[in-house]
Amino acid sequence: MLAIFHKTFAHPPEELNSPASNVTGENPKLPGETLSDFLSHHPDTAFSMNFGDSAVLAFVRSQNSHHQRVFCGIDGIYCVFLGTLNNLCDLNKHYGLSGKTSNEAMFVIEAYRTLRDRGPYPADQVLRGLEGSFAFVVYDTQTSSVFASLGSDGLESLYWGIAADGSVVMSDDLKIIKQSCAKSFAPFPTGCMFHSETGLMSFEHPKNKMKAMPRIDSEGVICGANFKVDACSKISSIPRRGSEANWALANSR
């Protein structure tokens, strides 16, 4: 899986961008180069979708029944989902999808759309209700929004980093991330979610802020940052205002 989003709306944490990317000789690549590399690594099983200069999504069809990969698009919302939700049937009933042919990516889109348009409960509450191993990336073409999350068990992989033009790159392929982002990358933190308007937060501990810890590689060079829950720092409660930009604020309790 590969997702690339333009810097003007993705707004990743500044700590992901390592100054060492410009001085170590390992230069980050432009999005077009990264996409070409990804497709060349999977010539028979990959496809991609371009959304002008805003975003690129690329997907490799699953060849392993034990490692599910699903791609779906509904009404301008696209989702790449890795893993399996053990309680998908119950979730479908809760979101009114019972009786329809539905997979994990379809469910995530419907849940995202419900949160975006009506926001009946906080996003962290929805994610805590997902049982299983998962990683997903959602791109909403209507609002030019990005929503991504990685499950708490860490059995799925997700990495993110900064490309040569400042775009955000997300992938489960560590080799692609390293080639694309040089030193400006990190593992996406488990038990967390990222929204392009509200930033990175823990869905397990939504009242705590996230803290960036510099990553040092084997050469002693700063390589992006690991993000951890800061147990000593709390987020002030923020009133929900009902717009698409604020559905993920998640502090209504």
The gist of it:
The protein has helices at residues 7-10, 31-41, 88-94, 104-117, 123-128, 174-181, and strands at 2-5, 46-51, 55-60, 69-74, 77-85, 132-140, 145-150, 159-162, 168-171, 185-187, 192-195, 199-202, 208-216, 222-234. It has 253 residues and is α+β, with helices and mostly antiparallel strands.
Structural notes for this entry:
This protein has 253 residues and is of the alpha+beta class. Helices cover 20% and strands 34% of the residues. The strands form 3 sheets. A 6-stranded antiparallel β-sheet has the order 2-3-1-9-8-10. It is globular and about 55 Å long. The two termini are 35 Å apart. Mean pLDDT is 88; it is low at 238-253. Residues 2-229 form the DUF3700 domain. InterPro entries: DUF3700 (IPR024286), Ntn_hydrolases_N (IPR029055), TSJT1-like (IPR044828). This is Stem-specific protein TSJT1-like.
Labels describing this entry:
34% strand; 253 residues; six-stranded antiparallel β-sheet; DUF3700; Stem-specific protein TSJT1-like; alpha+beta
Rg of Cα set: 18 Å
Instruction: Look at the helices and sheets and give the structural class.
Output: alpha+beta
Individual helix count: 6
Report, as a whole number of angstroms, the end-to-end distance: 35 Å
SSE pattern: EHHEEEEHHHEEEEHEEEEE
Low-confidence stretches: 238-253
Helix content: 10-25%
Tell me the total number of β-strands.
14
Arithmetic mean of pLDDT = 88
Global outline: globular
Strand content: 25-35%
Q: Main beta sheet: strand number and arrangement?
A: 6 strands, antiparallel
**Strand adjacency order, main sheet:** 2-3-1-9-8-10
